[in-house]
């Protein structure tokens, strides 16, 4: 989400007459887009703000603005801590002191073949550990028409793949007048000529409907890839996290998805070391990961966030060394699962949407979101290329252009 918003803020600034610079020292305006989902991310922003103080002292004419989830609309604390910040504005907004000269929509200025399209802001869920609803407010969906028009324009500018973004993307539309849902949006997007692939993140298990699963199976442009964060494999921990589903319910969704979309690639998010998570409860998570065998797992150590109910109600009582140990166990397990899953692609031909050249090799992704590298003398950027996989690792695939399948 931050990446998408930074791209759009960049476009907004360019439409207002700014040009990008390569270093902060050369800038007239610096907009820092912050993340505070965990303390480590917040520390990064705070350190950056400290380091920008010297720059601001050396060049008082530079304008310094902060956006993203560090900006808390309820307090002016930021200005107290960092008096040299000129402006702070809420995540998802645009520099409010600038008047954009162009009247066109704000789209990423240099879209690559794939780009993000935010379709909703905010979150209504209040998972007990999470700061997002406090910083990004309640769910607010963009009207279908607006998203379609924007995507058509992006396709016109060369975009081939869109990733629809929202904190809880599968609850899209409930706040709009005629209550469309994500399936309605996907169905309309699927008929845009020139658009080749559609993805969306992140899904909440409680909103994963059979209708949506059927749509993923039926709509040819919707990729066979789903991010469905489970967070924990233990029902008591899930309850304490206020996640609103059980492991049994989650398992049913996975079974249904795998039966309707056999080739589906699955990813999830896990938090280890939630308050009072004991070794048996952690083991339940490990067992679940071994059972489901996700393609990708994003794992994080629990980080108490001031203002959330978990930070208020529970003591952060799992030592950091234990959290790190649990993190490591999951990473090791996942590495071996991903190695096995990717190995099965050896000698198969996959369809790659080529993004860019990286260290002399073309790089792109399959519909299942596997990263693929291959050699080719021609300019393949933005093209769909059939690639035969010749080497696999847990993280990526190496291949060569499959000449037999060139049509
Ligand atoms: N809306 C998405 C995720 C938003 S935050 C969802 O419901 O899953 C992205 C990820 O950060 C979460 O999935 C969670 O795993 C992690 N996260 C959020 N708050 C955290 C916290 N306080 N400590 C550790 N990880 C956290
Ligand atoms: Fe945070 Fe839960 Fe909302 Fe995701 S669904 S953003 S984890 S509150």
Write a structural description.
This protein is an alpha/beta fold and 407 residues long. The protein has four domains: 87 residues, Rossmann fold (3-Layer(aba) Sandwich), CATH 3.40.50.12160; 113 residues, Transcription Regulator spoIIAA, CATH 3.30.750.210; 118 residues, Transcription Regulator spoIIAA, CATH 3.30.750; 57 residues, Nucleic acid-binding proteins (OB fold (Dihydrolipoamide Acetyltransferase, E2P)), CATH 2.40.50.140. It is built from twelve helices and 16 strands. The chain has a five-stranded mixed beta barrel. Strand 2, helix 3 and strand 3 form a beta-alpha-beta unit. Helix 7 runs parallel beside helix 9. The longest helix is centred in the last third of the chain and has 24 residues. The chain is globular. The mean pLDDT is 94. The structure holds S-adenosyl-L-homocysteine and iron/sulfur cluster.
Give structural attributes.
single chain, 407 residues, alpha/beta, Rossmann fold, Transcription Regulator spoIIAA, 4 domains, five-stranded mixed β-barrel, three-stranded parallel sheet, 12 helices, 16 strands, 34% helix, globular, binds S-adenosyl-L-homocysteine, binds iron/sulfur cluster
């Amino acid at each position: 989400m931050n990446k998408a918003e930074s791209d759009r803020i960049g476009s907004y600034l360019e439409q207002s007459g700014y040009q990008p610079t390569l270093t902060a020292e050369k800038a007239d305006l610096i907009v820092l887009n912050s993340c505070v989902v965990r303390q480590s991310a917040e520390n990064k922003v705070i350190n950056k703000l400290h380091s920008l103080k010297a720059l601001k002292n050396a060049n008082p004419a530079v304008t310094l603005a902060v956006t993203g989830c560090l900006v808390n609309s309820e307090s002016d604390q930021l200005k107290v801590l960092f008096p040299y910040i000129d402006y702070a504005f809420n995540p998802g907004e645009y520099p409010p002191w600038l008047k954009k000269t162009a009247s066109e929509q704000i789209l990423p200025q240099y879209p690559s073949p794939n780009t993000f399209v935010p379709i909703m802001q905010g979150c209504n869920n209040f998972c007990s550990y999470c700061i997002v609803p406090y910083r990004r407010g309640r769910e607010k969906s963009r009207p279908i028409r607006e998203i379609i028009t924007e995507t058509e324009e992006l396709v016109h500018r060369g975009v081939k793949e869109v990733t629809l973004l929202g904190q809880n993307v599968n609850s899209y539309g409930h706040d709009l007048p005629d209550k469309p849902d994500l399936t309605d949006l996907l169905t309309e997007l699927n008929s845009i000529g020139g658009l080749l692939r559609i993805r969306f993140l992140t899904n909440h298990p409680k909103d994963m409907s059979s209708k949506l699963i059927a749509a993923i199976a039926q709509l040819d442009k919707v990729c066979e890839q789903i991010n469905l964060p489970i967070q924990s494999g233990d029902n008591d921990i899930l309850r304490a996290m206020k996640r609103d589903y059980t492991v049994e319910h989650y398992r049913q969704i996975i079974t249904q998805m795998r039966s309707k979309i056999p080739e589906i690639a699955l990813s999830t998010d896990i938090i280890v070391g939630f308050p009072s998570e004991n070794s048996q409860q952690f083991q339940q998570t490990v067992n679940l990961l071994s059972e489901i065998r996700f393609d990708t797992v994003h794992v994080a150590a629990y980080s108490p966030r001031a203002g959330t109910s978990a930070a208020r109600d529970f003591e952060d009582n799992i030592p950091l060394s234990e959290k790190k140990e649990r993190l490591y166990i999951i990473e090791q397990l996942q590495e071996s699962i991903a190695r096995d899953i990717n190995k099965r692609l050896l000698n198969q031909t996959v369809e790659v949407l080529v993004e860019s050249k990286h260290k002399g090799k073309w790089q792109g992704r399959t519909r299942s979101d596997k990263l693929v590298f291959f050699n080719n003398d021609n300019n393949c950027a933005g093209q769909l290329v059939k690639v035969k996989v010749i080497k696999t690792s847990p993280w990526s695939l190496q291949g060569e252009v499959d000449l037999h399948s060139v049509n």
